[in-house]
């Protein structure tokens, strides 16, 4: 696990050193650089996990013509190293990094298809005089890039790019608009204009000053696996067990984040069977902060006792949230106002282990809070029939689209949702601020600058329009994996753990398991009223019955309580008429109307909307006010 950074088109070591300093928390154990005069400077900061003694980077092949800086873990590195040695490759280390180098020598750019792991890397081919960038299939490890003064810059975190001298910070209005819709901006654009996320499942070559991207992996939902449930459960257990087994490979201590739910409990159960002993970590909230909050400490403790783990707990209070709010904002870098407890539980875990396994991804693969069934209830089965069987791009879909466009009332609404794929996910696009509310809190000139092709509604529509032949549940799974999972859950898992020099691993997102889950028919993967049906059936024999019987608890935080007390002064500080007028982003009347509602006792959506605005103002103050 590391942080990487680099420049193509320059060999300026001073600039590279600034970039690496900005991400030193990702790798406090070691540091290195590689340069090619006037062409390249790339480097890394290392968190030593595997091959502690000889795993230094940058690392090259036998003659030094191939060099790599790499962030992540290749879990099947032992198997790949044996295969490559048999083909004649000579290894000088026992690191997973060197496996990538020799795999590239043997297989070229197709080497990424051989890798089972989480990774982002930059590989220099001295023979071609070209640089290759790559990111893992699901985007577990981050990679950002920007063009500046005829050079391309890349890094594991946005803050490294922002450290470049004379780099102009400009707010991306489209990302702000998307952030207000759901507490995080999705897609390849970030909140900073000209800074981009490198897409998951892609490689790229930098040629002639341009980035030439190429997709090497995409998730296939067909053909479906129509085996019986018993056989499917056995297949899952084999895949899941192997995923946990190889993700426990480490030369440093490994623990598990234990939330109290099924996913993390399943990981802990497998981990303790492989390791014999295990440390687990859970987080809860003080009683005074509870209200709308979810608190699963009781269930986590019961699971830990059942499994016999060495269990640690952390109680989060509102005062601590305020104290560290700036740290969490800077750690994430991009706009984000969702849950931050991962930051605090990571700090606890980092005192005892260097690696922690997380249950992230289980919801997206096996149930995700019954979203398909709630969607069915809101739309009606007739509309879903149209959506699943007619689609929007075929001849029948085009005829229906023309026919239903002008039908008034609920029938027209249902039909349009079935025909127009962009409306299928309108609930996600309006999770926090509905469109009219976004437009009420933003200044008119800001709204006029928006590019509709870059807004979240269009991003969802573009994903969905490629999947006309799939049932709605598979469409929802695909959208979740390509947006919320990668841009929010995996992003904060990486940033908040690495802020404390802790590596997080996600066994549910082993690509073999993801590919398998995508082919399971919807009716076998989960049942109405029984989310994660197949997962529960497969795991029931190894976990306490009570964790299967309790209702699914969505993760919520006491934002309202925090805004009432420890953070209440921020409302006056960042939303005064003078501040808003000088800033020029928000509509005074719209924002103050929202604040009046909150102070008048209105909660629910108003709380999340106000929290998102407060976090934006803090973020803006950190990154823009003093420029």
Describe this protein with a few key phrases.
29 helices; 6-stranded antiparallel β-sheet; 627 residues; 45% helix; 17 strands; alpha+beta
The value of Rg in angstroms is 24 Å
Indicate the mean pLDDT: 87
Number of strands: 17
Q: Give the helix/strand class.
A: alpha+beta
Largest sheet: 6 strands, antiparallel
Task: Flag low-confidence runs.
Answer: 418-423
Question: For the largest beta sheet, what order do the strands appear in spatially?
Answer: 2-3-1-9-8-10
- Total number of helical segments? 29
Principal-axis shape: globular
Helical content stands at: 40-55%
- Strand content of the residues, in percent? 15-25%
Distance between the termini: 33 Å
Descriptive overview:
There is one protein chain. The relative contact order is 0.12. It is globular, with a radius of gyration of 24 Å. Helices cover 45% and strands 15% of the residues. The chain contains 29 helices and 17 strands. A hairpin with a 2-residue loop joins β11 (202-207) and β12 (210-215). The two termini are 33 Å apart.
């Amino acid at each position: 696990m590391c942080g990487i950074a680099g420049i193509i088109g320059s060999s300026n070591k001073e600039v590279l050193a600034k970039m690496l300093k900005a991400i030193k928390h990702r790798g406090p154990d070691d540091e290195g650089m590689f340069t090619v005069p006037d062409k390249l400077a790339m480097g890394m900061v290392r968190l030593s996990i595997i091959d502690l003694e000889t795993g230094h980077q940058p690392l090259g092949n036998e003659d030094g013509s191939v060099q790599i800086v790499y962030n992540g873990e290749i879990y099947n590195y032992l198997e790949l190293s044996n295969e490559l040695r048999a083909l004649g490759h000579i290894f000088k280390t026992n690191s997973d990094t060197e496996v990538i180098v020799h795999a590239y020598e043997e297989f070229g750019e197709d080497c990424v298809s051989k890798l089972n792991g989480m990774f982002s890397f930059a590989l220099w081919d001295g023979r071609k005089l070209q640089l290759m960038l790559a990111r893992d299939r699901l985007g577990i490890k981050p990679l950002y890039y920007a063009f500046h003064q005829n050079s391309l810059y890349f890094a594991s975190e946005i803050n490294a790019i922002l450290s470049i001298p004379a780099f102009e910070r400009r707010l991306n209005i489209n990302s702000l608009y998307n952030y207000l819709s759901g507490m995080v901006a999705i897609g390849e654009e970030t909140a900073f204009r000209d800074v981009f996320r490198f897409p998951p499942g892609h490689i790229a070559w930098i040629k002639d000053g341009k980035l030439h991207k190429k997709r090497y992996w995409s998730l296939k939902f067909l053909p479906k696996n129509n085996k019986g449930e018993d056989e499917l459960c056995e297949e899952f257990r084999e895949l899941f067990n192997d995923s946990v087994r190889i993700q426990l490979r480490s030369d440093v201590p490994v623990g598990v984040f234990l939330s109290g739910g099924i996913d993390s409990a399943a990981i802990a159960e497998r981990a303790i069977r492989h390791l014999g002993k295990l440390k687990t970590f859970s987080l809860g909230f003080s009683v005074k902060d509870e209200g709308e909050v979810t608190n699963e400490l009781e269930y986590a403790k019961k699971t830990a006792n059942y499994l016999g783990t060495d269990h640690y707990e952390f109680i989060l209070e509102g005062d601590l949230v305020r104290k560290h709010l700036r740290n969490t904002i800077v750690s994430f870098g991009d706009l984000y106002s969702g849950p931050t407890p991962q930051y605090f539980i990571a700090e606890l875990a980092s005192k005892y282990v260097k690696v922690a396994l997380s249950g992230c991804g289980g919801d997206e693969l096996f149930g995700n809070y019954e979203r398909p069934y709630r969607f069915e209830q809101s739309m009606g089965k007739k509309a879903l029939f149209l959506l699943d069987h007619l689609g929007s791009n075929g001849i029948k879909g085009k005829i229906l689209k023309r026919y239903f466009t002008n039908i008034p009332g609920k029938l027209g609404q249902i039909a349009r949702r079935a025909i127009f794929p962009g409306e299928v996910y309108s609930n996600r696009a309006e999770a926090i601020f509905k469109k009219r509310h976004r437009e009420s809190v933003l200044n008119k000139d800001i709204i006029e600058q928006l590019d509709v092709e870059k807004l979240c509604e269009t991003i969802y529509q573009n994903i969905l329009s490629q999947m006309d032949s799939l049932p709605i549940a598979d469409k929802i799974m695909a959208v979740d994996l390509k947006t919320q999972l990668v841009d929010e859950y995996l992003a904060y898992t990486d940033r908040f753990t690495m802020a404390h020099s802790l590596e997080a691993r996600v066994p549910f997102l082993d690509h073999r398991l993801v590919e398998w889950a995508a082919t399971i028919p919807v009716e076998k993967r989960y049942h109405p009223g029984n989310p994660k049906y197949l997962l529960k059936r497969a795991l029931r024999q190894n976990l306490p019955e009570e964790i299967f019987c309790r209702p699914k608890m969505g993760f919520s935080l006491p934002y309202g309580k925090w805004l009432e007390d420890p953070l209440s002064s921020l409302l006056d500080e960042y939303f005064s008429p003078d501040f808003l007028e000088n800033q020029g982003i928000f509509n005074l009347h719209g924002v103050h109307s929202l604040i009046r509602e909150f102070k008048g006792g209105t909660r629910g959506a108003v709380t999340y909307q106000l929290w998102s605005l407060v976090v934006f103002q803090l973020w803006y103050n950190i990154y823009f006010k003093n420029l």
